[in-house]
Design goal:
Blueprint lengths: L9 H7 L1 H13 L8 H12 L22 E7 L2 E8 L10 H6 L13 E3 L5 E3 L31 E4 L2 E4 L4
Antiparallel strand pairs: 1-2, 3-4, 5-6
Helix pairs in contact: 1-2
Membrane topology: Peripheral membrane protein
Keywords: ANK repeat
InterPro entries: Ankyrin_rpt, Ankyrin_rpt-contain_sf
């Protein structure tokens, strides 16, 4: 018979466990936010604790088009000792693609390329056979951190950077 693990509210856990209480206090003492943090921003920060396995965005991060935008979402993941810088998140796709060059850089002893009968049709209508299927362990995280511009005094002759109040930020060539 399958058993469902008993769940406890975070408040009950903190009230009944001195170890958990002390850890939370330690984390709260070390975490810093701007003094004028809005209630919405604070709510988003707290929601990150309870929204395990979900991506959330604040109103400031959502594009003007809202949900109607067609911009891709890329994240970085770690697979074994290799960092994959741009992984496309697309729940609407019928398959995920791992380039052969990236697969060649992974050093996974247990990962085996399995047979696949899938044929992929490209945008131009041509058909491509896939090399196979593979399951990979990936690490996404460790956690979302809010980064604020820190006021600094700086100057740069490097054209890749532009001075913006209050900090120096990378700038793409346009």
């Amino acid at each position: 018979m399958n058993k469902t693990p008993v769940r406890i509210s975070l408040l009950s856990l903190l009230l009944n466990s001195k170890t958990h209480w002390n850890l939370l206090l330690k984390i709260l003492k070390e975490a810093h936010e701007a003094q004028d943090i809005t209630v919405e921003r604070f709510s988003n920060l707290v929601n990150n604790i309870t929204s395990k396995g979900h991506l959330t965005f604040s109103d400031d991060e959502i594009l003007v088009e809202g949900k109607k935008h067609n911009q891709p979402l890329h994240i970085s993941v770690r697979c074994d000792d290799y960092m994959i810088a741009k992984v496309l998140i697309d729940n609407g796709s019928s398959l995920n693609v791992l380039p052969k060059a990236t697969l060649g850089k992974l050093t996974l002893a247990d990962a085996q390329l399995g047979a696949s009968s899938i044929v992929v049709r490209a945008f131009d209508g041509s058909k491509r056979e896939v090399m196979g299927e593979i399951s990979l362990p990936i690490l996404i995280g460790p956690a979302l951190s809010w980064i604020y511009d820190q006021p600094i005094a700086a100057s740069s002759d490097d054209p890749r950077y532009t001075l913006r109040e209050p900090c120096l930020i990378p700038c793409t060539n346009r």
